[in-house]
Amino acid sequence: MGKNKYSVNSSTKCFSLNQMMRLLLLALLTLHFESLFAFDESPPPSDHTYRTDPVTKAKLESMLLGMFGFTAPPPASLKRLVPTHMRDLYHKHVTSRKSEDLEPWEKLYFHHDQATDVPPNTIRSFLPEDTESVPSDDGRHSLRFSLDSHPKSDQPVAAELRLFHEATPENKQHKLRVNIYDVINHKVGIHNLIDTKIVNSTAEHTVVFDILPAVQRWLKDSNSNSSIVVEIKRLGKPAEADKTESDVIKSRVRVRRSTEEDHKQYHENKSPLVVVYSHDKSHADSDSTAEWRNRVKRRSGSQRKNRRRMKPPKSCRRDNMKVSFEDVGWMSWIVAPDEYDAFYCYGACSFPMESHLQATNHAVIQSLVNTYYPTRLPKPCCVATEISSICLLYTDESGHVNLRNYKEMTVDSCGCA
After folding, report:
1. pLDDT at residue 25 above 50?
2. Is residue 208 within 8 Å of 161, Cβ to Cβ?
3. Are 161 and 196 in contact (CB under 8 A)?
4. CA 225, chain centre distance (Å)
5. Which 3-state string (H, E, C) describes the chain?
6. Which domains does the chain have, with CATH numbers?
7. What angle do CA 62, 67, 73 make, to 5 degrees?
8. Which of 222, 259, 315, 364 would you label with 285, given CA atoms 20 to 30 Å apart?
């Protein structure tokens, strides 16, 4: 091939340097006559109805579930108890996305000091299996948590035990030491102290303990009973102090439900809660996701042919595409959101292209050549240039509430490429 020639898409048809210069000159002239390139403003046809047979519908649902890391929807019969803390985390994420100084997921939710090379993308919560146990004489309470639904392959990077502390009257100022033990061997009473804190506030608040070593051991040892002992001691009082008063003060740290309390209200607002921050890779490169992407690629050729039969749309832009979880019947296990806007990119990439489309130099040349030689190569494609994640709050197959960050779920901007 000569030095003064340029090829298009590796075809055998070449344009000489003089031909290319003439095209560029014409392109400069057209900048002053943009009305010559006006597009029809009609939106994509809305009368296209997709009729899906039951088998295809089930396949599509299975693929969509695979994108979310599920093999099947959790049973609708599960009792849904959603801790307030998990709702707060979800709303914090939504609020931060609307602000200008959006922080990464790990900065929003990774509240611990230790550094990690693997940022968490999933937050799982676990309520204790039994909160009705009576404390022993030494003020110890045993709590058992089932982490069976936590995938063994996932890497926990942080874990915390959250205990609710009720407000105390000002005249009942107190100081408590709360010790947290991992139950190594319940039969012989081997306990390992993993965290301790002093509580001296009269205000209502949550006391947070670092229990990552215990959670890591539970996940590695399938025979572990996943139990924690909470020991509450009153400080600053003589031994002969009124025992009844001490018991009342210590009961401000809630580790069990009283008989008169509503079951749902207690478990969602005041119950002990284990929260595990982990890196979940199961949904990133699942077979269903890969299959979905391959199908989209295979359909791209036929979609381009269909577009040629449509009325020319206006220039490449982002349009709304609502995804409703209620419409697919998933609201029994998805807590929030009810729906989200995934958006999609649609429109023409014709010369001259507007500056906001962020067209590549290659796309500009391709659209220019297409303008004068439409049969030689297609126009550039209107594609997503920026894609962001969404946050999903849901209950898993065991009834535990999880918060997960899903990447590449919504289009932020479109351009030509």
Report:
1. no
2. yes
3. no
4. 30
5. CCCCEEECCCCCCEEEHHHHHHHHHHHHHHCCCHHHHCCCCCCCCCCCCCCCCHHHHHHHHHHHHHHCCCCCCCCCCCCCCCCHHHHHHHHHHHHHHHCCCCCCHHHHHCCCCCCCCCCCCEEEEECCCCCCCCCCCCCEEEEECCCCCCCCCCEEEEEEEEEEECCCCHHHCCEEEEEEEEEEECCCCEEEEEEEEEECCCCCEEEEEECHHHHHHHHHCCCCCCEEEEEEEEECCCCCCCHHHHHHHHCCEECCCCCCCCHHHHHHHCCCEEEEEEECCCCCCCHHHHHHHHHHHHHHHHHHHHHHHCCCCCECEEECCEEECCCCCCCCCEEECCEEECCEEECECCCCCCHHHCCCHHHHHHHHHHHHCCCCCCCCCEEEEEEEEEEEEEECCCCCEEEEEEEEEEEEEEEEC
6. 15-64+287-416 (2.10.90.10), 122-279 (2.60.120.970)
7. 50
8. 222
Our measurement of the distance from residue 305's CA atom to the centroid of its chain's CA atoms, rounded to an integer in Å, reads: 35
Task: Please check whether residue 319 is in contact with residue 343, taking contact to mean a CB–CB distance below 8 angstroms.
Answer: yes
Residue 221 burial (C-beta neighbours within 10 Å; 0-12, 13-18, 19+): exposed
Query: What sign does the CA torsion over 395, 400, 403, 408 have?
Result: negative
CB–CB of 401/125 below 8 Å? Answer: yes
313 pLDDT band, cuts 50/70/90, is low
Determine contact, residues 272/254, Cβ cutoff 8 Å.
yes
CA distance linking residue 283 with residue 279, whole number of Å: 11
pTM: 0.71
Q: How far apart are CA 382 and CA 162, in angstroms?
A: 48
Give the N- to C-terminal CA distance of the chain in Å, as an integer.
26
**Do residues 156 and 211 make contact, with C-beta atoms less than 8 angstroms apart?**
no
Dump pLDDT digits (tens) for 267-301.
888 889 999 998 876 554 444 344 434 443 433 44
